[in-house]
Amino acid sequence: MKIVVPVKRVVDYNIKPRVKADNSGVDTQGVKMSMNPFDEIAVEEAVRLREKGAASEIVVVTIGVAEAQPVLRTAMAMGADRAILVQTDAELEPLAVAKLLKTIVDRENPGLVIMGKQAIDDDMNATGQILAARLNWPQGTFASSVAVEDGRITVVREADGGLETVRLALPAVVTTDLRLNEPRYATMPNIMKAKKKPLETIAADTLGVDITPRLETVKVVEPPVRQAGIKVSSVAELVGKLRDEAKVI
């Protein structure tokens, strides 16, 4: 079975994002970029499935600027076999990403697409579901456990009320949650090997997909600075402040 793993280049999670001076978006100039953490989990799970004999090939895909290639090399250093960059400088919404991914999935004909449940830059949590709908494939979202057997995949997913187990016919789309696994570190030998693995670049405008934005970003601002907390010396003082200042009792 072939597995396709979409990944995204985002501002590194250790970096505090800065808003552009004109409030048009987040400043990424000179900022460390890395693979979306949820997508790292997806790559790790794909590699584990191959190690268990449930997969034969892992193809990673990213959509974005040419500078996203290092993210693909990282995924290949973790164990992916080859990579595809759908290159575009356009700002993409989840619908456009899902449309572009569908063209790659149609071409690659995998048995499974596994991807992060959301990206930490916008937290949209929509691309996986839209992709599954456009492919007309079953989906298992927010996966905390995955097992493939007898041509089906069993996904334990995290829902609001607890855990739900779904059994899906393949091919299917699975989105990963934090508790699915702990991604491995890429070793230096594997990083060197990844440089020799095939990386194909496809221009997004050659795929015949309408990626016109449906949304307009009016303004991006930082959240207000939180006021410092205070200490109280007694329960009576706490109750008094809740009543007189916070007006909650």
Automatic annotation (TrEMBL):
Xref: SMART domains: ETF
Signal peptide bounds: none
Superkingdom classification of source: Bacteria
Domain (Electron transfer flavoprotein alpha/beta-subunit N-terminal) ranges: 23-211
Function: The electron transfer flavoprotein serves as a specific electron acceptor for other dehydrogenases. It transfers the electrons to the main respiratory chain via ETF-ubiquinone oxidoreductase (ETF dehydrogenase).
Subunit structure: Heterodimer of an alpha and a beta subunit.
UniProt name for this protein: Electron transfer flavoprotein subunit beta
Organism: Asaia bogorensis
Taxonomic placement: Bacteria, Pseudomonadati, Pseudomonadota, Alphaproteobacteria, Acetobacterales
